[in-house]
Amino acid sequence: MKELLRTSDPTVIPYATALLEGEGIEVFALDVHMSALGILPQRLMVRQEDYFIAHAILREAGLPVED
What we know:
Layout: E1 2-7, H1 12-22, E2 27-30, H2 32-36, E3 42-46, H3 51-60
Antiparallel strand pairs: 1-3, 2-3
């Protein structure tokens, strides 16, 4: 798994997940419960082989993806 996105905004991860799952890309959200406490930002992970296309999809949607 590779980190695609890291954010403290609670609306970004569900939106990114919907975009990627709509394209058939499996995603996994980490630190969801910890971010609710304000301790850590949420992270969105994808498989290594899906990273390039997932990064392009989220970048085109205007989301703050990791470089």
